[in-house]
Each structure stands twice: as C-alpha cells, then as structure tokens.
Amino acid sequence: MSSFIFKGSSNGSSLISQYSRTKTRAFCSFQHLHNFLDSNQNPKVLNSGYSSTLLKSMKQPWGSFYALANSGFLGSQNQQSLYLNLKGWIWAREFGTQAAIEPCTSDGLTVDGIAGNNWTIREENESDWKSHTAAIAQSIQVIKKRLQWKKLMVRLDLLSAELNKLDLWNDPVHAGKISREHGSLMGKMKEVKAFEQELLEHIDMIKLAREENDTELESESMKALLRMRRDSKDKELKALLAREHDSCSCYIEVQAGAGGTESMDWAAMVMQMYKTWAQRRGYGVTVVDEMAGEIAGIKRATIKVDGEYAFGYAKAEVGVHRLVRISPFDSGKRRHTSFAAVAVIPILGDGSTHVQINESDLRIERFRSGGPGGQHANTTESAVRIVHIPTGITATCQNERSQHQNKASAMAVLQSRLDQLEMARQAHMNAQHTQSLTEISWGNQIRTYVLHPYRTVKDLRTNYEVSDPDSVLEGDLDDFILSYLSASLDKDEGEQ
C-alpha cells in the first residue's frame, strides 16, 4: 500500500508518494496547503484510503480535485478517472473501464512541452538533466508515432466496449480474440504511460531536491534519468514491432533460383546466414525440411525460428537476394550472378489459426529421406509430404527420425502457410505477407551482395549499404532489418 505525504517548502507543499521502487515520488506541488502540516511543522502522512480527507482539503478557490478511490496514480494499479487542478494533472479520458491520462509535472510541463522546448541533447556522459529529459521525451514521441497512438487509443475504446457486452462469450473463439487484442493493446498503452509518468516524476524530484538542497535525491534522480534514456532506445525498437503477428515465431524458407549449382550454393549461404542471425538473437532454430543440391548447396530448405518477435524481425527479409562473385565452381574463374528467394511465415499458435484443415482435403505421401544417410535414416519411408488438395500447397519434412514426428512438423508448416494465405486474401495484401518463389531472377531482388570486383551489400528498398559483406553473411543483419522496418513505417504513415 502506498502512503502520501504533504511536505512543506518555501513556495508551497508537495504531494509525495512513497514507493518501494524508488525512495519517494512527487506527484504535484500545491500552494496554500500549509494546513497539511501539523503544529510542529512536520508533514502529515495520509494512508492510501485518502479520498475523503484529500477531497475535502483540496477544495481551494483556485482549483479542484476529483478522483475515484484507488485511482491508478494514487496508490493502485487499477487505473480509473482522474482530474486535478491546473497545478497538477490536467485531464483524464475514459476508455471503457480504463483511463488514458495526460500527465504533467508540478509546474505544468508535459512530454510534448519538453520536446517543444528544444533543449539541447548532449552526450550521455554529461550530467545534464535537461539533456537527458529532452532525449527521453523525444523517444516517447517516436514510440507513440510508431504505435500509431491515436488509432491505438480509439481501437482500445472499441475493444473495451466489446468486452462489456453481455453476449460476448456466446462465441468463445471471437471472445478470446477480442480479449487477447485488448490485453495486448492495454499492455502497450500502460507501458508507455508508465514510462512517461516516471520521466515527469523524476523531473519533479530533481526540482524538489534542488529546492531542499538534497544532493543525494538529486543524484538518484539523475541516475534514473540516465537509465531511462538508455532504456528508451530499446523501447523505440520494440515499438517498430507492433503489428498483429510481429510477436510470433516463424518459419524461414529459402529456395535456390536461376544459376544452377552456383545458386544452390548461394541458397545454402543464405540459410546459414539466417541460422546464425537467429542464434545470435537467442532464438531457437530447428531444421524442418532440406533438399540438398546434386553437387553443392541446397535446392530449398525450411527452418523454424522460435522466439519472441522472430516474425517481426524476419519479415524484413522476404524477397529475392542476389549474389555477384567469382564462382568457385567455374574453372575459368568468371564472375557469376546467383539468386535465392526467401519467404517468412508467422506461426500463429493455438487458438489463432485462420484456416481449419479437413483430413479429407489432404493427400499424404511417404518416401525415404534424402541426404547423406546414416543408421536407419534411409532404410524406412520416414519422410512425409502433405498436399492440401484445394489450394495445392505442399509441406514436406524429412529431418525427424520417425514418420510421426515428420508428419506433425509438416502439418505445422502447412497450417502456417494456409493461415498466411488466408491473411493475405482477407487483407488484399499478398505482396506484404508472402513472396512468390517462381520469379527468382534479375529485377526482383531486394538486396544485392557483391563480392567481386568490389565488396558491398546494398538493400535496394532503403538504399542502406555496408562495405563488409563477410559480417552480413555471418548473421549481422540487424541494421538492414531496422532500416527496412523504419522505412516501411514511414511509408505506411505517408500513405495514410
């Protein structure tokens, strides 16, 4: 339970909330509140059941205070409505049973106001609270822009209204979908508001510490601002991955294109690049299917990438990748151009599938596993190919040791492919969700890797370029991915 202290100072009193996370937090300062001090001029402490005392005492000629008991910013995690006088919180907007609060400091400074002040942003190692504050406020604005804040709040309001309908759970599948989306959006909203509120609280604490000559409190708040400034960059990145299925795991498929053995070798290099990238990020990587080339490389392969936001990141790699190099398979040492296509499919998880698969729509074929062999590997028909007859979509798995395991893996891949097809059909956005693997040739590439006569990797969608192709082929893809995600977000906002 939180407690509240009105602390007297030279120019008024401050409402302080004691938290376990930090020593004290200032919510707002008020003038003419000396009646909160006892006869010995000591601050009075109010329990979290403050409402009657606080409401009665706040009836001043210059403002008013209204709050529901257990309001989120006065001791409870359950956010409800809140409206303070002009020296404190400005307004509260209701979204279902939740409140979207526009906070400010004790002197009325908001995050937008901080950004509008154009305070100079210096290096992190300089102990300047205005610099840290300006950098954090700028990041909060970027985060809100990426989350499409106004649309998010409107959508949250609509979902809250849906959840309040008495007949919602008559359709459990629909109700579950609404509940999950509401929880996801509410989590994003609360995280941003909490970050915003924490910034304003530390600004108030620094000002209060300077008034009271409390160097220890000022130092703690300065360290907290520096930590927030560093954390804000991670939050900016996370805000890029705010689309519906971005948090899902995914399958990454690579298929060799025009170029014969050279392209099969290139496809194997691309697949290895994604394996390394995924492992660097701490994702689990499982080979689902792989068809080896006759001489070298692979004709096609599919891996499963398990981890939070795997699809959000990997979707930036969908398209054709082009390689220019001196071919190791050409005795004349001539320069060759090779192509490989990449497709990325989200794994929606239980309860989120878009397509129900009927057993009667499947044709299941069993065959012996290919590859180098080994004990038991090629002696039984353990590999499985499943064909969805209505769509012609095929999924194959031959990397597990048993037929049952291969069938289960192939069914999971087929389900994800059918779900992706249905998402594309519903949204009329085939080009965004999937990529044809039939036109893997010149003119369709998204990125070019040149190893000869010069060395560079260039993304043709964003013009982002690096001169160290070796590091890229070893899995250093994050800069390319972030560049594309940022450009895609800006493009979507421009179209809207």
Description:
The chain is an alpha+beta fold. The chain is 38% helix and 22% strand. The chain is globular and about 80 Å long. The two termini are 45 Å apart. The strands form five sheets. The protein has an eight-stranded mixed sheet with strand order 10-11-9-13-12-17-18-19, with helices on both faces. The chain has twelve helices and 19 strands.
Helix/strand layout:
Elements: E1 4-9, E2 12-17, E3 25-30, E4 45-46, H1 51-57, E5 66-67, E6 82-83, E7 91-95, E8 98-102, H2 111-116, H3 129-146, H4 149-163, H5 172-211, H6 215-239, E9 249-256, H7 261-280, E10 284-292, E11 298-306, H8 310-314, E12 319-326, E13 335-347, E14 362-367, E15 383-388, E16 393-397, H9 403-427, H10 430-433, E17 445-450, E18 456-459, E19 465-466, H11 469-473, H12 478-495
Parallel strand pairs: 12-17
Antiparallel strand pairs: 1-2, 1-4, 2-3, 5-6, 7-8, 9-11, 9-13, 10-11, 12-13, 14-15, 15-16, 17-18, 18-19
Helix pairs in contact: 3-5, 3-6, 4-5, 5-6
